[in-house]
Amino acid sequence: MKKYLSILTMVLTMIQIINGQEELRKQAEQLSKELIIIDTHIDLPGLLQNKWEDISKTASGDFDYPRAKAGGLDVAFMSVYVAARYENNGAKSEADSVIDVVERILKTYPDKFARANNPDDVYKNFKDGRISLPMGIENGSPLEGDLKNLKYFYEKGIRYITLAHSKSNHICDSSYDPERKWKGLSPFGKEVVKEMNRLGMMIDVSHITDDAFYQVIELSKAPVIASHSACRFFTPGWERNMSDEMIKALAKNGGVIQIAFVSNFVSQEIRDKEANNRNAIAEYLKANNIPANDRRGSEYSNRYWKENPVGYADVKDVVKHIDHVVKLVGIDYVGLGSDFDGAGDSFPHGLKDVSYFPNLIYELLLAGYKKEDIRKICGGNLLRVWTEVERIARLSK
Ligand SMILES: [Zn+2]
What pTM was estimated for this model as a whole? Predict the structure, then answer.
């Protein structure tokens, strides 16, 4: 009898747990509709520039209207990505042609997407049920050494600039580039920071070196953003993510780190597997005297990666990064910057595309976050920074 009773208690507890989880799922779903969700880095324009697709239906990338709606995504910052090779080589006109893609989206689907040049536009579009598509340029090369180009792009709707991408440019150094040409910001880069403050454009510190970051923090009168970065605490030594010291400096500046979802940004385990693959490939090519850049080399490499998949991080890893920032500096300095459509097939289990935001919110609820915290993480913090950047610009006029 005793045995049956304990089994019965176990079953009842399990039912309670399942009911509790279901309750949290419902709550997460509701919050995803009720709160303004902002993602500060989506690389859709680059995809559509290569090949236009009808994004009012399910499309081939990580973002389209049906999935964004299902996910409750309200503000998708369109990344106007300009590759490092355009530096001194047509960067401004490349940026213009990517901006044209965003313009085409706005013109093609006026009932679904809308321009958003400031937080007020965001609130208005949210009420209308349309998805806001503000823009940020990824890589400052399009400024082409002329401060007047900042105004030019501001007028076209650009609201942040990631100062550099994979290579050092005429503005500052890149974390991916071993060459540290400027030891931070260039003299022109310092002028860019001041002019962005004056215009009310957000400065994006993702991708740049630590030195460049600290120089921006020292110079900028306004809070800055990291549009898609994660915590170096979990990926020691990897400069593309932000160290605890940097996150503290960012919080002191009133800025926000928008956590990227990419598996190898959030999981050291994935990074280790990637390094193992790269080493194994390099050893094989060396032992067989195959140059890495010839056909046999790339064929071997492609096959090796296919046969030795590194797998994916989990949505819980992303929550760990959010948690880390919150424990370090508080709830007001963290947000979301997925890098969807910018990182191939490398998004975590449970956070694969723009339809998964309710699942992220569910995990935040499981981790003990309350509605007000989740509101800040999902977009409130970014809106606070954007509003402050505009206020400071008004003061200087
Ligand atoms: Zn990037």
Answer: 0.95
